[in-house]
Amino acid sequence: xxxxxxxxxxxxxxxxxxxxxxxxxxxxxxxxxxxxxxxxxxxxxxxxxxxxxxxxxxxxxxxxxxxxxxxxxxxxxxxxxxxxxxxxxxxxxxxxxxxxxxxxxxxxxxxxxxxxxxxxxxxxxxxxxxxxxxxxxxxxxxxxxxxxxxxxxxxxxxxxxxxxxxxxxxxxxxxxxxxxxxxxxxxxxxxxxxxxxxxxxxxxxxxxxxxxxxxxxxxxxxxxxxxxxxxxxxxxxxxxxxxxxxxxxxxxxxxxxxxxxxxxxxxxxxxxxxxxxxxxxxxxxxxxxxxxxxxxxxxxxxxxxxxxxxxxxxxxxxxxxxxxxxxxxxxxxxxxxxxxxxxxxxxxxxxxxxxxxxxxxxxxxxxxxxxxxxxxxxxx
Length: 380
Description:
Radius of gyration: 26 Å
Structural class: alpha/beta
CATH superfamily of the largest domain: Crotonobetainyl-coa:carnitine coa-transferase, domain 1
């Protein structure tokens, strides 16, 4: 499957990274001058754009749009991340593209979707989090520590694209996939919103069980998580390890009622424990727990290592990335190339489309397309 991507920043690149790791030929169509704005953050761009190719094309020129249409003619998917209306102003309205190329799945990822009163408004993750109820009132309201709207919409976009391709392959028409960052975050809050709308009892998050939290352990204050969420057997095991069998029989309803008292007791007790001894004592007892890792610790964590989550890029010795998390028959797709330089594959892709070398040179001279500096220098 060939996926042509006009999506920049975070959601589209994350979605196409998932597809590329599963074997899709993902072609980034970037602006000749600068490309994706996140190229200025080398780690961000590298993380989301491995296994892809880049062609730099000026879509504001007629000749550039002609190149783009030739590329799309042989593609299975087009994904774009502009505000609604931008594609139409470029003369590349997805509705018109599908009329011209009936088998093309068109996916649009935007802040608020293709319809509705906010459809044409731009916005980044923080604004979407606020509208979706993630920024809670308080002394210092703040967003989540991750761009949740970007990540949620990326995953829904990948799911939508794969579903549309399956429908097409089973004899249906190629769909237009409309993914809204706001819709995606509202979907993630389903349990809270459904409870509020229908007068039903929500499951609080974080849970009110005092055995659920982050605690400082030992004299060094190493952070340690406990994730007991109503499981009496886990509480029993924890209290036994901590030498308080008298507390082991306190059931969840009583623990929640005595949350403040028991949380204070746990905090004091754990400050006097050795984190390694505690980890060894709890292992195998069915208690949800774990040390808190920083980024370097995540990469070295034995479970992460055993699962091969940190993977080498075979085409770039020494470069390591995070593989996509789905395994098929215990295997993940290979990561064979690092993120491309801007226009690194311009000549290669134009040749695949049947452009004669002289035509390619004319396009380069007219700055309709661009090739990477390294590529041009290697040609002498």
